[in-house]
Recover the amino acids of this structure.
């Protein structure tokens, strides 16, 4: 029986190593995906007519400025609740925030979220559970965490595009269709391999 132990331990070691490699790859993919997501936010603000930023939408809904400050502030909450060992950036004031301030703050909170995702999904670090809000049940850190974060931001980007159109500041087609050009977004974020690549 003792003759089988080294073989079993060797197989376990190989499987453990393969799982660690998969987790590391997942962590890298999550970071690149969130970077592409953030690039979409930056593209929208870059090409948005400045007059649309603080314009009051019909029906008392959030302004475009309020939507982007909300995105940043929610990220700060995710970081504070999920990864308190990481420094969360300062929150934004929706009534006073400029497009330039929003772009800088979003870039900072995106970097924090990328670090949180790398720890949560890469298998190394202190992030074990995702706490999306103080009232909500926490989840084990996993792919669902990334999906939730992306869905939240995509929802609000859709609102921004719709509001810009309703307010008479329609975004150029190359911008709105460019949000779907993941190969370009991926390269703009420094991932030369494109989606699905591990380089």
């Amino acid at each position: 029986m003792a003759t089988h132990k080294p073989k079993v331990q060797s197989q376990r070691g190989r499987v453990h190593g393969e799982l660690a490699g998969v987790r590391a790859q997942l962590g890298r993919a999550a970071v690149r995906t969130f970077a592409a997501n953030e690039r979409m936010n930056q593209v929208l603000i870059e090409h948005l007519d400045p007059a649309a930023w603080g314009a009051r939408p019909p029906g008392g809904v959030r302004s475009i400025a309020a939507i982007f400050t909300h995105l940043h502030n929610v990220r700060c909450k995710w970081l504070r609740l999920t990864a308190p060992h990481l420094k969360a950036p300062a929150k934004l004031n929706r009534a006073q925030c400029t497009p330039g301030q929003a772009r800088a703050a979003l870039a900072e909170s995106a970097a924090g979220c990328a670090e949180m995702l790398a720890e949560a999904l890469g298998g190394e670090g202190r992030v074990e559970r995702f706490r999306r809000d103080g009232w909500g049940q926490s989840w084990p850190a996993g792919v669902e965490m990334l999906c939730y974060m992306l869905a939240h931001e995509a929802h609000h980007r859709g609102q921004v595009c719709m509001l810009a159109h309703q307010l008479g500041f329609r975004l150029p087609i190359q911008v709105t269709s460019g949000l779907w050009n993941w190969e370009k977004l991926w390269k703009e974020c420094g991932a030369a391999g494109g989606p699905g690549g591990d380089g």
Observations:
- The CA atoms of residues 31 and 117 lie 6 Å apart.
- The helical segments are 5-47, 50-53, 64-82, 99-122, 143-166, 173-178, 182-188.
